[in-house]
Design brief:
Elements: H1 2-36, H2 42-67, E1 71-76, E2 89-93, H3 99-109, H4 111-127, H5 129-140, H6 148-164, H7 169-182, H8 189-216, H9 218-260
Antiparallel strand pairs: 1-2
Amino acid sequence: MFVEIILSFITQVVSTIGAIFLFGFLIALCNRRFYSNFGSKSMFVCYATGFIGTPVHELSHALFCLIFGHKITEIKLFQINSDDGTLGYVNHSYNPKNIYQKVGNFFIGIAPIIVISALLYLFAYLIMPSTLSDISMLAKSISFNKGAGEFFNMVYQILYTFFSAATTWQWWVFVIVGMFFALHMTLSGPDIKGALSGLLFVLPCLLIVDVILGLVGESVLASFDSVMFRIGAVFDIFLLLALIISLLSCLLSWVYKLSIGRFIK
């Protein structure tokens, strides 16, 4: 039973927290390259996209501060020309003896990834539901157990399905609006530091839950596994949309750099 509990714990962490960090890392790479490709105009572009994306980013932190009982001491939704280049911030305090609030540090730190991905999914559901439905079905069928060839084939089908909708005005609206959000999902240094401090409490809590459920019964632990996998699958779909938009944004920035950018100094 001990082996089963540990395996369940590992698969739960990989399918949920692992997926969030992986997608978040890839999105951050795309966003960093997007702004870098604009060279001297990167700050202007950052301001232009940030007046929408930054408030949503900071409000995401604030929302999870409230959920986990943290006290918001100061909040700045959007600012320009700050000394350190910070576009916005949320300062908060908590009781270091409260485990729930310590766990909250993890969710507060990664809040922009969760909230903005969910908003993109909701927007896609409202403006192009059939395309989203097709992508969701394909995403749910992805499995590493079927081999690398099958995995990349499913990824290709997802991308093909998404870009096939480019003939509609809804697709263009979704992509343009989505860029303002996705380009500001990237976590700052303090965000990551706070998330990691909370992760030190999230992992033991999850392990304790698995141990208790495993001792109650194998079927109970299996049911909990199923719930965690479903949660992970939902997040994967959310994050997949955000990653596609970030990749598209990065591609457009390369077009600028290789064509327009070299003529405009």
